[in-house]
Fold:
Amino acid sequence: MRRLVVALCSFALVLVSLTSVSAAAPPDLSYYSMRLPAGLTVADLIKDGYDVTHGTRPTVVATPAEAEHLRARGVVLGKTGDVYHPVPRSEPGGATYYGGYHTAAGHEQHNASVAAAHPDLVKLYDIGDSWLKTQGQGGHDIQALCLTKLAAGDCALGSTGEKPKFVLHTQIHARELVTGETAYQWIDLLVSSYGNDPEITELMDTRELWVVPMANPDGVDVVASNPDRPVLQRKNVNDSAGGCPASDAGVDLNRNSSFQWNVNEGGPCDETYPGAKALSEPETVAIQGLLDKLFADTKGDIDDPAAASTTGVFLTLHSFGNDILAPWGYTNTDAPDKAALVALGKKMGALTGYPVSTGDGGVGYFAPGATDDWLYGTRGVPSYTFEIGPDGGSCGGFLPAYSCMASMFWPTLKPALVYAAQAAATPYGKLPITVG
Structure:
């Protein structure tokens, strides 16, 4: 049964002009925990087109009708919460939506204003184009910011700079709202705290802090096209494969890297469709190209460990599940640096309260072609996925109430981001002392 999450969205308009979309209301959706019968797996349901994620146990996003279909297949469901929460009404096309989350335009305005206001601390880069922009249909630049106390040679697009690099990468899955908003607040923390907070000042003096606030801006436009009931768009908007309703088209950018890409991840209409080939999407080319420039290759073959002298840490933020996922994510075979990767993960886990997993242990499925596996697998840089938030309640799921940023997410994530940046100097050596 094909997923119906965005079937009622007038998505065809998106391909013409995402700035003036008037989307129909998405269907009623809820989160359900699942207990699967013998012989049925999470991977089976994903291949059947269900929108499966994970929380304390595998979770499906479903309409009431879809829930009944699953029950008919022997799946025991327990409703954990509603997808949508009441928010003050807002109009399409603004800088914020759904109570305060920033649109693609809002992020771009913020990036430009921060770079203009702090030329001694920020460099803003255009690292590539979104799919729609490559088609001449509007779209966006993919933007990256480098934040540091700028000195000669800092924030160059190369791996020879003296300062260790920490990279925060967010909203590759467009509907995972809290991820991009965390990047927004991280940027503000760094520029507002320099010279005022000794810990942040030390970071800015000694690290390059790179941020990609929106890895999938076309998808963010789709999400924000209904500002009161955001569309659950996960993928980019590449509809060139054909054969799908417009609402199901697109490529999962977190399955599209050139490392362990797997054609069997799904067909063009599936949420995990990896694209026609590895590195097929311009968004993937932009992100992989940036990381390729920033980090030297310290790793040999896939089974070889990284050099002990490797520097850098990479975090890609997703939601939801309250987990930290370390390489590998495409297999249960241990990564050659598993012990060190898990050790650093546990340091960050002590600050967030998130457990650390590898393979499919944290989510119940594999993610071949993911960004973090690519960076660790090809450059040796410790790379992690954070799955942010619970699976129920007003702060749960893909679309938590915006107030949860201040009450839950930012207080939880801020110390872990600071720690990850500190650890970038010697991620395989002596780690900072866990604080807080």
Notes: The radius of gyration is 20 Å. Confidence is low (pLDDT under 50) at residues 1-24. The CA atoms of residues 339 and 345 lie 10 Å apart. The longest strand covers residues 122-129.
